[in-house]
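#structure-requests
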Amino acid sequence: MKKLASIFIAILLVIPVAGQSPENLGVSDLIHTQTAETFEPGRLDFKANMNFFTKLGEFLGDPVLKPADFSAANYWLVASNLTATAGIARNFDATVSLRLYQDTHYSNEFNLPDDIFVTLKTGSHFFARRRFAAAFMSSFRIATGEVHNYPFAEYASGAFEYGFYGALSFYSDPYLRDRSFSMHYNIGWWNHNESGTTLYKFRNGTELKATRNSSNLQMNLGAIMPVGLFDIRFELSGILFTSDPDSFVYSAEEWAFFSPSIRYKPYDWVSMDLGVDIRISPKDRQNTRGIPDVSQTLDLPKNYPPWKIRMGINFNILPLAGSKKSRIESEKDEFQKKVEFYQVIQNEEEKARNIEQELENLRREREQAEKEIEELKKMLEEGEG
């Protein structure tokens, strides 16, 4: 199978990207990219998000051959997720996510619920004067949905899937990380673990079972630019198969997406996300064989949608152990307050310096004006004399 080597080599020469892993990310993370920070013990956050793509599938080919009873198919691809992240111990948190995947265009119409994701993360390992942080994660996908291997979405085998990831974060301000520019890099390996699993079942009862375990390298790169009450965010994501899936898999192609998004933070306890995935991988690549392919007869994507709209809402729930903070945690909170106070002082000093500079400029202009007036008086006196 032809790889996306040319795309990823070009990207990797500029920035080391990493993948659009399943949406089991923590509340404070980007859409596809995890930060290297973990929650403090006792903290519990919750988020709900969804993404969708829709297109009217018109008939392809000669209109003369169009069936008399044909009607265009309106395809809606909708996936929603409920996610909770909890701080378990120092440098360790856990995320549980339930996916509600709707409109898979199978006989069951939708999975309710779909699969469960679990991510265990050890992070907030700071170094280089706290400008960098590292994290390590293990993720699992537990198949609780009725059907899998659906088209136009990332490959879901229906088996117990798992993966391992690393994350690296850079912060331009090591003490006010949420208020300064930051970049986040992920790279990981995902195993679909599907060998022997039924991937497709025909109406006559014939089943196609996986002959191998497929796996892929997942990559993501994200950047966050805080601007007042907003975070402006950009992400690049993609996968490269390290072991190709069987041909009767709908999502048998590698992919890459560019994902700009914005987060609105009106209060400390709630924030809202809005973004879009834009496919930058080839649109006409089609590796699926041996199973019905709706894109052969309808004007629908050959592999992945050209875009997906994403939106979500995040809640910061009160810490479960807020009244039982350790001395180190209390000192950390006090230190953070001092840093914020000194930041205010620094801003005020900068404003004062600007005012002093303006006053100095005015003083010089006044002196220059007085000098010109004095010279004008002399000229008038000499003229009268």
